[in-house]
Every structure is written in structure tokens, then in C-alpha cells.
Specification:
By secondary structure, this protein is α/β, with parallel strands linked by helices. It is built from 18 helices and 16 strands. It has helices spanning 8-15, 21-24, 46-58, 78-92, 136-153, 198-220, 238-243, 254-262, 290-298, 310-321, 333-342, 347-359, 362-372, 376-386, 389-401, 409-415, 420-431, 441-456; strands spanning 33-39, 64-71, 97-99, 108-112, 116-123, 161-163, 168-169, 183-187, 190-193, 225-226, 234-236, 267-270, 276-279, 305-306, 407-408, 460-461. Helix 6 packs across helix 9 (290-298) and helix 12 packs across helix 15 (389-401). It is globular.
Length: 462
């Protein structure tokens, strides 16, 4: 007889989950969906943005468990902490609430809010704040761990743990997403909604264009990591979440690193529901990411530059050449792949690629992969896991540092073969004398065209 499957969720909750997970087992109301939102310097209006999704499933008798983790660190100033306190009070007053916590536990309240259940966790008040280097990642992990415990206890029956943020408007069909077999995570389509401040809108549109350009470039290169890593657009399968030990406890980039781990244990599936609307805003909540990028771009909008499209051609040559490692002897593994990559490159680009690959440790990784595996599938899996989304980005940066410097964003899009239809459409408009609209309108139109290319092109995710 085969051994029973390991209970990875029970193991995770016992060994790796945050203490707040115990609160999840105290929720008695049965729910069909779950949504986790870290809230830092937000207003209670964040609930209005998620109501279309909550209301839609509520009309068919399905309840949602909505977990809001209000968070801050001791480094944050008094006005921000006061705004967080106001948010806590408003959320607790949204419906009659009862405490889930006991003495010395993290303050946590439960409320039956009609057709959804609201759980509010206080990691902002004195004595309960987050460690300074564990910001939004820790907040997401706390909420997801609590959700996982509720699911394990049987109160929650969600097929996915959804994550979002306070700056979104969820579509009514948000929860109507299929989860194919072997899926580890689902990523939602998105678009940024102008806020009405011309400089912020323009900066945000340019950053969104970069995000889409980067994914299209990865897809052009046939990377298995061609998916967006946006915290407000992710849902994860509970078992996969437990397998990778939850959300990384990082100040920023937790969404990127979470999906990078999940992509190694299952498929990253693209949701076919309506896109999530993200309100354009500049934010200093985290050290990097959309809000921070918008803030930085707004300071010098016209100087914004992105990767040279040639970077993705070199990446494409490298990824295509990796099959040369299938049967290569260990001592020749890197050389054979590198030589194969050079067949499609001129000598200067081949040398540039070699310098970048050595900078990220590729020669050693290929030799070890060949030496420590005994079949082609195992070797390919090892290489795919090593050359992941993180090392892909490192190679892109190494190529940039090696001479393929960033170029003005519109020039990059115009020159990139993977953005050709977008560039051609804009060139035709310019030739026809179509006026350039102010306030980010033209740039948002570029984003829309890039989004269409994403949607109708081949999917590059695992």
C-alpha cells in the first residue's frame, strides 16, 4: 500500500505559522471564500473597493471571510499611528464585533457583516507592532495563516486564499475563477485607474507600461516566469501555500518572492475573470514597488527609462540553449550551453552574455545540475528552479550593467519586437495627427494596448 499523503497544512500550522493562526480555529461561521488585506495608513473606504466581489457571491448565498491586518512598526510617526487607530475603530464599528483573542494574544475582532464575515487584526497598537524589517510581508502572512487555520478547522471551505490591498476595486466576478489541477497560484489581470492628479497619473501609467513590457519581454524569451507579481492580484492554493512556508516576511517584494516559490511547486494560472482596478497613487509605504516607483518617477517623469529590448534577445538565446545541457557531461555542461547560445548572437553580445552569466554564478550551477541529476527531466527541473524569477532578474540587471543600458521608455517599446503592434498603432496615430492627450491619457492607452498583447499572446507561466 502507498503511504498516505503528508498533511503539509497541519505541519505548517504547527511549525511555521504565526501565532495569530490560533485565532482562525475560533471562527465558527462557515464561509466559502477568503480574502486577506494588509492595511497600513488606509481609510475604512477600503471596504468599498472590495464590495462588488463580496456582494456578488453574497447574492447567491456564499459568504466570504475578509481578514484585515492593520499594521505599523515603532518607526512610524504618531499621525500615521493615529490614522491606523481610526481605521481600527471604523472597522470594528462596521458591524457588532466580538473579541477572538484572549489575554496576551494579538488583539483580534470578529464581526458578522451581513453576507460576509470581517476579522480585524491589530498589529498597529503599542506592544503589538510589527518588527521594523517585516512590514507588509509579515502582515500578509499573519492574515493568510489565520485563514489557513480556519480552513483547516473546517469553518472555511475556500479553494484559494486571496490577497489584495487597500487601493483596489475588485470586479464582481472576482471569486468566479477556476483552479486547474496542479495549480499553485492564480494571478489576476489588472489595470491602473487614474486618480486625477496629472503627474501621478502619468508616472503610474509609465510604470504600468514597464511592468507589461517586462512580462512581454520574458514571454518573448520563453521564460517560465512570465507573470505579474502584484500583491493585490494573487490567490494561492492552501496546500501550495503551506508547502512553500507562507508569505516571505519582507518589507517589500513579498509578492515577487512568494510567487517565485510557488512557481516551483505548481502552475501559475492566469485568471480569466475581469481585471482588478488599482487606483493610481504615489506611496512611500514600502521601500520599492508600484507606489514607491510612482513617487520616484513623478520627480522626473521625462527622464524615465527601462530595459533595452536587446536584453530579452540575449535572455531568449540563453533559455533556448539550455536544452544543450540535457546530455552534456558535467565538466562540459556550461560550455556546451554557452556555445549553443552563441549560435544566435554576434561575438560582442555573446561575450556580454558570458560576463553576465558568470556574474550570477551560472557556470557552477550548470556543472552541479549535470553532476547531481540522473535523468533529463530531473536536470531540467533543477535548472528551471535555479534559474528562477529572481535569477532571471539578476541576469537582466547584469546585462544592463554590462553595457545594455536603459533607454527612454517609449523608445524601448517602439523598438521591442514583442511590442511591435503597440508601437505601430501609436506611430499610425502620430502620422494621422492624433493629438497627445494630457494627464497620462496617452500613456494609459499604451498600457491598454500592451495589456491586449499580454492577453492574446502565448502564456509564459509555468
Amino acid at each position: 500500500m502507498s503511504a498516505p499523503p503528508k498533511d503539509v497544512i497541519a505541519k505548517y500550522l504547527a511549525r511555521y505559522a504565526e501565532p495569530e493562526c490560533a485565532l482562525g480555529s475560533r471562527i465558527e461561521q462557515r464561509t466559502r471564500h477568503v480574502l486577506v488585506i494588509p492595511a497600513h495608513d488606509e481609510s475604512a473606504s477600503l471596504l468599498e473597493g472590495i464590495r462588488p466581489a463580496l456582494d456578488a457571491v453574497g447574492t447567491r448565498g456564499e459568504r466570504t471571510l475578509c481578514i484585515v491586518v492593520v499594521n505599523a512598526t515603532d518607526a512610524h510617526d504618531a499621525p500615521l499611528l493615529a490614522r491606523n487607530e481610526s481605521l481600527l475603530s471604523a472597522l470594528k464599528a462596521h458591524a457588532p464585533s466580538v473579541a477572538l483573542h484572549e489575554q496576551d494574544e494579538t488583539p483580534c475582532w470578529y464581526a458578522n457583516a451581513g453576507h460576509f464575515d470581517l476579522v480585524v487584526i491589530d498589529r498597529s497598537s503599542e506592544g503589538h507592532r510589527l518588527p521594523q524589517r517585516e512590514g507588509v510581508g509579515m502582515a500578509r502572512k499573519i492574515g493568510c495563516d489565520l485563514a489557513l487555520a480556519a480552513l483547516r478547522a473546517g469553518a472555511n471551505q475556500a479553494p484559494l486564499i486571496h490577497m489584495s490591498d487597500g487601493d483596489v476595486r475588485l470586479p464582481s466576478d472576482y471569486f468566479d475563477v477556476t483552479v486547474p489541477p496542479s495549480t499553485a497560484a492564480v494571478v489576476y489581470r489588472f489595470f491602473h485607474e487614474p486618480c486625477g492628479e496629472p503627474t501621478i497619473d502619468e508616472a503610474h501609467a509609465r510604470y504600468e507600461a514597464y511592468l507589461r513590457y517586462y512580462i512581454l519581454g520574458l514571454r518573448h524569451a520563453a521564460s517560465p516566469y512570465a507573470y505579474h507579481s502584484i500583491g493585490s492580484c494573487i490567490a494561492t492554493v492552501p496546500r501550495a501555500y503551506a508547502t512553500v512556508r507562507g508569505v516571505p516576511k519582507r518589507q517589500a517584494g513579498e509578492d515577487f518572492y512568494l510567487l517565485n516559490k510557488l512557481a516551483k511547486v505548481g502552475r501559475i494560472h492566469h485568471a480569466d475573470s475581469s481585471p482588478v482596478a488599482i487606483v493610481a497613487r504615489a506611496s512611500l509605504r514600502v521601500p520599492f514597488g508600484t507606489g514607491r516607483a510612482t513617487h520616484d518617477i513623478a520627480k522626473n517623469v521625462e527622464g524615465y527609462r527601462i530595459y533595452d529590448p536587446k536584453v530579452f534577445e540575449l535572455l531568449k538565446s540563453w533559455l533556448a540553449a539550455l536544452q544543450a545541457c540535457d546530455e552534456a557531461p558535467a565538466e562540459r555542461a556550461y560550455e556546451e550551453v554557452y556555445e549553443r547560445a552563441g549560435e544566435a548572437l554576434d561575438p560582442s553580445d555573446h561575450a556580454r552574455l558570458g560576463t553576465a552569466l558568470r556574474a550570477i554564478g551560472a557556470p557552477k550551477a550548470l556543472v552541479e545540475a549535470a553532476a547531481r541529476t540522473h535523468s533529463v527531466p530531473d536536470r531540467r527541473k533543477r535548472l528551471r528552479d535555479w534559474f528562477d524569477a529572481f535569477r532571471t532578474l539578476k541576469l537582466v540587471h547584469a546585462l544592463r550593467d554590462g553595457g545594455l543600458v536603459d533607454v527612454p521608455w517609449r523608445e524601448a517599446i517602439a523598438a521591442a519586437p514583442f511590442c511591435r503592434s503597440t508601437a505601430e498603432a501609436e506611430a499610425a496615430e502620430k502620422a494621422a495627427g492624433v493629438p497627445v492627450e494630457a494627464g497620462g491619457a496617452r500613456s494609459f492607452e499604451t498600457c491598454r494596448r500592451l495589456a491586449i498583447l499580454e492577453e492574446h499572446g502565448p502564456q509564459g507561466a509555468s
